Amino acid sequence: MKILKAALGAAALAAGLWVSAASAETLRVLAWEGYADPDWVKDFTKQSGIDVDVVFVGSDDEIWAKIKGSEGKDFDVMAVNTAQLQRYIDADLVKPWDLSKIPNQKDVLPRFQDLSKITGMTRDGKVYGIPFCFDSIGLIYDTDKVKPAPTSMSVLWDPQYAGKVLAYDNGEHNFSFTALTLGIENPFQLSTDQFATVKAKLLELKPNVLSFYTTADEALQIYQNNDVALIWANYGQQQLKAMQKAGAHVAYIAPTEGSLSWLDNWALTSGAKDPDAAAKWVNFLLDKKIGAELSERTGFGNTAAASSNANDNDKLVWLESVEDPLKRSDLWNEIKASQ
Amino acid sequence: MSERAAPAGPSALAPWLATIAAYVVPLGFVLAPMALFLVYSFFSVDHGSIVFSPTIANYVRFFTDPVFLPIFWRTCLLCFTVALLCVLFAFPVAYFLTTLRGRSRYMLLVLLLVPLLMSYVIKIYAVRSILGGNGMLNRALLATGLIDKPSMLFVFNLNAVLLTLTVLLIPFAVLPIFLSLERIPKALRHASADLGATNAQTFWRVTVPLSLPGTLSAMSFVFVLAIGDFLTPQMVGGQSGFTFGRIIYSQFGTAFNWPFGAALSVILAAVVILAIRLGGRLESKHGGAK
């Protein structure tokens, strides 16, 4: 009898817990590691009474698979970058935000104030993304070998650094930054002529390149065992900090012609159960204290508080989806294959 | 009756189950994926999504585009050189092993195979820190005064790929050569000596011909492993050491052109099968020791 009672009690308790978990408001968040730290989640729940269920992702494709797979119904809010947001809008997987519910957006850093100025953030006057986290893709240079400090990516072509340049193995970005260096207005939509010009320029870069790297660790190891002066820094400030930590004498610049930069935004899924709760979450995160913590913990820039990632006058060019990724990748292979 | 039938049931089924299991593994995990590759190689890609209507465009592109064939031949030549070098280095080692007796022979063999237990990536990293412009090799050469500034002869180019692949693949060449040398009956060598042959004559006219099957299978083995590798060229090849494996890799990674990548893989698989057949054919021709 005792056992039966205990079992019944446990069952009732479990049922009760289950019911309470289901009835309470739960916000389902899809985010990158570092965007929804446990202490923030805890504070948010305490403040708003809204439970948060966070799922972390590892790649853009994973986000797409998760959101597209459930037609937006499995999550309420997600973090997605400017280049990716377009295809979610095209596929009706996101809904516009009601900015009046996110008052903190009014107090963000100047460059994030006017969302219509950030390409791809708005469509038909409606706001689809709230900027949250960013970093530039700049240039790391060895302070002992490169004097004076460079100001432009054009230094990568300087013959005195032949064999001392580490480039990144990605056709899409390489075409974009070379286009910027050549002064092409829109590096993401190249015409056939512009493609030819940029390709010729990239072929000229090859003799200066020691190797093309893919991960930040790899770049650091090559730097330690070779005479490297310049690194095209795909991993931005994070990469700089890791190198300095390892004892390298290096510094970072954002080139004056504009540096490609990624920008992650909070977007509201079309299947969001409670848009107001999602707005509360975003508003909560657009806080100066949390922004500073985000930058301190991840090394990325935040939109609420000033960080070392960008000065107000740095020209950041937010990444957009490019005209033809396949063409860029094919041309990049041709460049690598040429002797 | 039922008591008798019951034990008969499983024992009658067992061979069937064993047969099914024996077929399921190679069919399901080897042949089916390869067939899928073949099927995919006849599709195409449009704006990031695969078009499922048959076309031979991928193969036409491989043979007509000026980018791919030169890289393909260069890669084949590179891997053939790697195979040749591996065998040249492995043969003396394997021969030395057969001269050892008892425990020391197998201890040394195991020591030679220990590198195979280590992660491939770690080994490439290690080689890279040896080969770098300020790497161990260059520093050693500088210290001995043999060169007065770091040599870039083997830093991030095709030479580096050749050297790294050879170093990493030698253990795979030692084993088959050792096995074929070990199988040569001692009596044959003694007979050769009895008939007045010198040691060198015995080596060249008895030992080497009889070890050819193992040597050739070692060569085709190393060739196959080298040609399928994309990581080594990616990590030590720099801007000039571009290989076929790297092109295939890029089709699946950044390009998202799976059908073209599949077509290139099918071509690579054809070369690999050819290399294995060739190794096997020559082997059976020279396989006198059996």
Written overview of the protein:
The complex is a heterodimer of chains A (339) and B (290). Chain A is α/β, with parallel strands linked by helices. Chain A is globular and about 60 Å long. Mean pLDDT of chain A is 89; it is low at 15-23. The relative contact order of chain A is 0.19. In chain A, 39% of the residues lie in helices and 20% in strands. In chain A, strands 1, 2, 3, 4, 7, 13, 14 and 15 form an eight-stranded mixed sheet that branches. In chain A, strands 10-9-11-8-12 form a five-stranded mixed sheet, covered by helices on one side. With 290 residues, chain B is mostly helical. Chain B has a domain at 49-111 and 170-286: MetI-like fold. Chain B is built from twelve helices and two strands; from the N terminus they run αββααααααααααα. In chain B, a hairpin with a 2-residue loop joins strand 1 (44-46) and strand 2. In chain B, helix 3 crosses helix 7 (158-182). The longest helix of chain B has 39 residues, at 2-40. The N and C termini of chain B lie far apart (52 Å). Mean pLDDT of chain B is 87; it is low at 1-8. The chains are: A alpha/beta (339), B mainly alpha (290). The interface between A and B is medium-sized, with 30 and 31 residues.
CATH architecture identity of the domain at 49-111 and 170-286 in chain B: Orthogonal Bundle
Distinct helical segment count of chain A: 11
The pair of chains with the biggest contact is: A-B, 30 and 31 residues
Q: What is the CATH domain class of the largest domain in chain A?
A: Alpha Beta
How far do the termini of chain A sit from each other? 85 Å
CATH superfamily of the domain at 49-111 and 170-286 in chain B: MetI-like
Tertiary shape of chain B: globular
- Assembly context of the chains: heterodimer
Q: Using the 3D structure, state the CATH architecture of the largest domain in chain A.
A: 3-Layer(aba) Sandwich
Average per-residue pLDDT of chain A, rounded, comes to 89
- In CATH terms, the superfamily of the largest domain in chain A is Periplasmic binding protein-like II
* CA radius of gyration of chain A: 23 Å
**What is the general shape of chain A?**
globular
Structural class of chain B: mainly alpha
Q: Biggest sheet of chain B, strands in spatial order?
A: 1-2
Radius of gyration of chain B: 25 Å
Order of helices and strands of chain A: HEHEHEHEEEEEEHHEHEHEEHHEEH
**Main sheet record of chain B:** 2 strands, antiparallel
Count of helices of chain B? 12
Protein name (chain A): ABC transporter substrate-binding protein
Keywords (chain A): Periplasm, Signal, Transport
Subcellular location (chain A): Periplasm
InterPro entries (chain A): SBP (IPR006059), Sperm_putr-bd (IPR001188)
